[in-house]
Structure formats: structure tokens, C-alpha cells
């Protein structure tokens, strides 16, 4: 992104973050942003909104669908983005706003990578470990099955990582033997 685009993303993001903080709606707005970002991730919506061959009316119709289930403040942001024809910036704005709200509340999503599915008890124990080691609150757990890990787990939250996977240990052993 060029400097002007980064500035625009910052401005839109900050307005939503300010409204969420002032109205004590951080958790609600953050959950709404996560839901929208899941739509972007699962559908590739960001590419459609950035595509030059898609008309403004079609982009507006897509965003209109997102507004229906959104919190009123998020819906208002979506309206402003459509009015200003900034649809291509929507995904980066949502990502940055979610990140900033997480930082303000010190509540983050925890990604747990494991070789096989976890039980609820294991998930809760890993949540407690992450909260203690990373000094944060976990407000969402994302479990990712990655058979390449062989065993162990990788915890990731707020750009911090704990990696106890057997794959990682084998790679470390290999490096030490060189």
C-alpha cells in the first residue's frame, strides 16, 4: 500500500475504534469484525471489492449484504466506505480495527495448532497456559489441525508463539547436529 492508502485505512480504522471505545462496545464490535473477516477469508470477497472490472453498484450490493447482520456502528462504517467508493480498503480496515481493539482490551484470539483434535479440557488448559505466558486474555480459540506437527502444539496469540511440536524439536536437533 502506498502512503496515501495507509493514511486512509488509518483514518477509517481510528473512527471505528474510537466509537467502540467511547460506547464501551469493544467486545461486540470486535466480534462483528471477526465475523466479517471470516466472510472475507472464506469467500475471497476482498479480491472482488478490489477488482477494477466490477462496478461500484455491484460492490455496493455486496457490502449491503454485510450490513444486514452488522452492529449499527459497523454498518455505518460500511455505508461511508461505499459512499466514498473505498470498497477496496474494507478488508485492511477491518483487520486493523480488530487488531487495535484487541490491543486496547488485551484480549486476543488464540490459535492452537495440533496434530489431532483436542478435548475441551485440553483446549482450556492450553488457553490458561497462553494467558499466563503471554499475559493476555483469550477471547477466541481457533484450533488448527496440522498433521505435520507429529505431536505437541503451537500456540500463537498477539504475535507471540510457543512451539512444543515434535516437528520443531526434530528441526532443532537437525540444526544442532550440523
Q: Pick out the low-confidence regions.
A: none
What is the makeup of the main sheet?
4 strands, mixed
Identify the overall geometry: elongated
Radius of gyration (Å)? 19 Å
The overall pLDDT average reads 95
- Measured as a percent range, the helix fraction is 55-70%
Broad structural category: alpha+beta
In whole angstroms, how far apart are the ends?
41 Å
Q: Please indicate the percent range of residues in DSSP E strands (runs of 2 or more).
A: 5-15%
| Order of helical and strand elements | HHHHHHEHEEEH
Number of helices: 8
Give the strand order of the largest sheet, numbering strands 1, 2, ... along the chain.
2-1-3-4
The count of β-strands is 4
Give structural notes.
With 178 residues, the protein is α+β, with helices and mostly antiparallel strands. Helices cover 62% and strands 15% of the residues. It contains 8 helices and 4 strands, in the order ααααααβαβββα. It has helices at residues 3-22, 26-43, 45-50, 56-67, 72-83, 90-105, 120-134, 166-177; strands spanning 107-114, 137-145, 153-157, 160-163. α1 (3-22) crosses α6. The longest helix has 20 residues, at 3-22. The termini are far apart.
Amino acid at each position: 500500500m502506498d502512503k496515501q492508502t495507509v493514511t486512509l485505512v488509518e483514518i477509517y480504522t481510528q473512527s471505528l475504534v474510537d466509537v467502540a471505545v467511547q460506547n464501551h462496545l469493544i467486545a461486540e464490535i470486535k466480534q462483528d469484525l471477526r465475523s466479517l473477516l471470516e466472510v472475507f477469508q472464506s469467500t475471497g470477497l476482498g479480491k472482488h471489492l478490489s477488482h477494477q472490472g466490477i462496478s461500484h453498484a455491484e460492490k455496493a450490493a455486496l457490502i449491503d449484504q454485510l450490513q444486514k447482520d452488522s452492529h449499527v456502528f459497523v454498518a455505518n462504517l460500511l455505508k461511508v466506505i461505499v459512499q466514498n467508493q473505498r470498497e477496496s480498503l474494507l478488508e485492511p480496515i477491518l483487520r486493523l480495527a480488530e487488531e487495535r481493539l484487541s490491543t486496547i482490551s488485551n484480549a486476543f484470539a488464540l490459535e492452537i495448532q495440533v496434530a489431532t483434535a483436542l478435548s475441551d479440557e485440553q483446549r482450556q488448559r492450553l488457553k490458561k497456559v497462553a494467558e499466563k505466558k503471554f499475559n493476555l486474555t483469550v477471547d477466541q480459540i481457533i484450533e488448527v489441525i496440522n498433521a505435520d506437527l507429529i505431536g505437541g502444539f503451537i500456540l500463537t496469540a498477539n504475535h507471540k508463539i510457543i512451539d512444543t511440536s515434535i516437528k520443531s524439536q526434530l528441526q532443532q536437533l537437525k540444526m544442532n547436529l550440523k
